[in-house]
UniProtKB/TrEMBL annotation:
Gene3D superfamilies: Aldolase class I. Residues 56-193 form the Radical SAM core domain. It comes from Leptospira ainlahdjerensis. The keyword Iron-sulfur applies. It holds the Pfam family DUF3641. This is Arsenosugar biosynthesis radical SAM protein ArsS.
Amino acid sequence: MKSLQSRESELVSPERQFGVLKEIFTKKKLPSFSEKLDQSGIGTLHPIPTEIFQMNLGKLCNQTCKHCHVDAGPDRKESMSKDTMFHCLSVLATNSVSIVDITGGAPEMHPEFRWLVKELRKLDKKVLVRCNLTILLAGTRYADLPQFYAENQVEVVSSLPYFEKRRTDSQRGEGVFDRSIEALKRLNAVGYGIPNSGLVLNLVYNPAGAFLPGAQNSLEKEFKSSLRKEHGIEFNSLFTITNMPISRYLEYLQESGNLENYLEKLVTSFNPSAALGVMCKNTLSVGYDGTLYDCDFNQMLELTVESEIRNIRDYDGDLLNKRKIRVGDHCYGCTAGAGSSCGGATA
Ligand code: SF4
Ligand code: SF4
């Protein structure tokens, strides 16, 4: 098996990924996600007016995590242009969307990241940044990020696969746990995660193997107790996220011989309540080149919105709100068990 750190996804083509899923769904006679929605009486998914505007600044990242659905890494060149950022800001200036969720890659590596955050704050938007923690220790250029976040009242959402070194490093790379702990201490030092500071620090858990996350409340208690006792670290909430069977995680499932069982598990754990709360209903996802998607996962599979409006430069909220959400069999990752979204469990 290849080293996880040097791994480059071989499932680059979305068609190949759909093909792999389709083959197993056919072999196992599993209902497609659309069929499942119909069988459960939910039918076609439609959006409500956008509440979360998610901007993906590109695929450049200082890490190469084995579960990464973005296939991000240090050699990736895709990056949002300033022109596309201007289009996003212009849409947001006249829009009631209250939350802007900035992701990547490691969004902080984008040269215009700080400018963008300040512009969004001028528009009075709540800004969430998906920070991988280790970026705070990736050189002097990033060392003052905790202060920058605090000054701009940014909400920080950070992945920490587990509160123990072995499981975190196996998923995100050797030494990532120790650097993540140091980064969390630096965020705590400026007030993040500290009660009544007004600075929100949420952590994201996703399973290290081919299984569904445990109950969010119980895991949050375990994370809080262990991180406080072992490292003196505080945070606000834990979001549990189910690994999506796409990109590098799909490759991992194939290589480890877990793919069929994992897909069956997702299908048999389908939860109609979770299906009613999927994040694509209130989120619009903007790719680095301005292309619009129902969610970040569809973005990685190049499933653009089903609308004549396909790019942020042509934005028309009324037309976009009339679209159907594009679903595929990967969507079972959002509806299994307690559900999964960028904000954790949904049911
Ligand atoms: S830190 Fe995030 S974006 Fe970067 S490789 Fe890991 S999962 Fe992907
Ligand atoms: S993968 Fe995207 S489109 Fe599918 S259910 Fe999840 S959020 Fe919705």
